[in-house]
Amino acid sequence: MHAVRNIRLCTKDCLCLYVCPTGATDTETGQIDAAKCLDGCRACVDACPSHAISLVPDEYPPQQEKSEAVVQALTALARSKVEQERMAAGTAQTSDDAVARQLATALSMSNRLMAEDLLREAGYMLPQSRNVQTLLQSLIDEPPADDFPVDAARQLLALLKEGAAGDAASAG
Questions:
Q1: What would the pLDDT profile of 128-163 be if each residue is shown by its tens digit?
Q2: Fold of the 2-56 domain
Q3: How far apart are CA 92 and CA 83, in angstroms?
Q4: Rounded to an integer, what distance in angstroms lies between the CA atom of residue 70 and that of residue 78?
């Protein structure tokens, strides 16, 4: 595990600089050097008063297969959240009440995050999922714009396939 900083939450109190035993944190760029970060140290996480630093795994496990019924249920729930986001956004734009606008904006953002999480759980946005690999291949085959970075998409797809092959070899 290594530490990451959510720059939006960072209040630049910089306590992380003083407690990090390896100097992995850089508040100027907002980056935390994963190579320097000690596995599971948590010193910066515990010291951060704005809770902008958290730990993430170095490697994520392969996506678990889901039955078609589960994927359909997750997709239907995600559609519901998208519709709720749309309604809340409409309320935020049309309400004369400042508090109602603020609440509707928060609900809109919350529903968007929930929809993204549900779709990711259904397998549509995880880099290791077949869906993402299929999407990348379609973008390579038919780029959406002249300036689309086809070479970068090819490299990413190759890395994802290489990673999947390594996962399969280590599991077998």
A1: 667 778 888 999 999 988 889 999 999 988 888 776
A2: Alpha-Beta Plaits (3.30.70)
A3: 14
A4: 12
